[in-house]
């Protein structure tokens, strides 16, 4: 599928990139997934230490690659994976900060929609507001996989924000009132790229902290929760 295609940011050196790819923000998490879950994993990218691997999971070919933090980084990598390397199913796996009272640390969040304070959508010159939504096919599969594992899971709208340190201390309370489940920094860019290209995208998140309750997980505690998220995502291959 990839022949000898490459970009300034992804140089596969002949290693195939699968049509389904998992996209953690942290490239070391991509390495962990490849080493822990994939059979016959081959590294297809190391440019800027943004590690990418392709292998098989339960007999199905799947890739995994880091994306870095924020919409610009996610949007760059996902655009190239879609348009240059032919990826059809893009599944972000990452962490988020919960802002609803009924949510707890380690819960899973399936991003049915991704509201945003970003202006990334302006490039499409749309005559209105666009709703960033997930692929229902991937969303449905992920919900069923999470339910089968008995995992606490929330499905709904999240916020993709360009701002980590916000000068407006009331911003999150306003989003909370609109039913936003949690906050992260990548999904809206992924969903916009996927919608424009006509491919599938889904974000699966683990609650690593509850922002309004000021609760946080430790790195050790996160590992088990992240493993649950990874295993749900792998079932979508």
TrEMBL record:
<feature type="binding site" description="in other chain">
    <location>
        <begin position="184"/>
        <end position="186"/>
    </location>
    <ligand>
        <name>a purine D-ribonucleoside</name>
    </ligand>
</feature>
<dbReference type="GO" id="GO:0004850">
    <property type="term" value="F:uridine phosphorylase activity"/>
</dbReference>
<protein>
    <recommendedName>
        <fullName>Purine nucleoside phosphorylase DeoD-type</fullName>
        <ecNumber>2.4.2.1</ecNumber>
    </recommendedName>
</protein>
<feature type="binding site">
    <location>
        <position position="48"/>
    </location>
    <ligand>
        <name>phosphate</name>
    </ligand>
</feature>
<comment type="subunit">
    <text>Homohexamer; trimer of homodimers.</text>
</comment>
<dbReference type="GO" id="GO:0004731">
    <property type="term" value="F:purine-nucleoside phosphorylase activity"/>
</dbReference>
<dbReference type="InterPro" id="IPR004402">
    <property type="entry name" value="DeoD-type"/>
</dbReference>
<feature type="binding site" description="in other chain">
    <location>
        <begin position="208"/>
        <end position="209"/>
    </location>
    <ligand>
        <name>a purine D-ribonucleoside</name>
    </ligand>
</feature>
<keyword id="KW-0328">Glycosyltransferase</keyword>
<feature type="binding site" description="in other chain">
    <location>
        <position position="25"/>
    </location>
    <ligand>
        <name>phosphate</name>
    </ligand>
</feature>
<feature type="site" description="Important for catalytic activity">
    <location>
        <position position="222"/>
    </location>
</feature>
<feature type="domain" description="Nucleoside phosphorylase">
    <location>
        <begin position="21"/>
        <end position="231"/>
    </location>
</feature>
<dbReference type="InterPro" id="IPR018016">
    <property type="entry name" value="Nucleoside_phosphorylase_CS"/>
</dbReference>
<feature type="binding site" description="in other chain">
    <location>
        <position position="29"/>
    </location>
    <ligand>
        <name>phosphate</name>
    </ligand>
</feature>
<dbReference type="InterPro" id="IPR000845">
    <property type="entry name" value="Nucleoside_phosphorylase_d"/>
</dbReference>
<dbReference type="GO" id="GO:0005829">
    <property type="term" value="C:cytosol"/>
</dbReference>
<comment type="similarity">
    <text>Belongs to the PNP/UDP phosphorylase family.</text>
</comment>
<feature type="active site" description="Proton donor">
    <location>
        <position position="209"/>
    </location>
</feature>
<feature type="binding site" description="in other chain">
    <location>
        <begin position="92"/>
        <end position="95"/>
    </location>
    <ligand>
        <name>phosphate</name>
    </ligand>
</feature>
<dbReference type="GO" id="GO:0006152">
    <property type="term" value="P:purine nucleoside catabolic process"/>
</dbReference>
<feature type="binding site">
    <location>
        <position position="9"/>
    </location>
    <ligand>
        <name>a purine D-ribonucleoside</name>
    </ligand>
</feature>
<keyword id="KW-0808">Transferase</keyword>
<dbReference type="Pfam" id="PF01048">
    <property type="entry name" value="PNP_UDP_1"/>
</dbReference>
<comment type="function">
    <text>Catalyzes the reversible phosphorolytic breakdown of the N-glycosidic bond in the beta-(deoxy)ribonucleoside molecules, with the formation of the corresponding free purine bases and pentose-1-phosphate.</text>
</comment>
<dbReference type="InterPro" id="IPR035994">
    <property type="entry name" value="Nucleoside_phosphorylase_sf"/>
</dbReference>
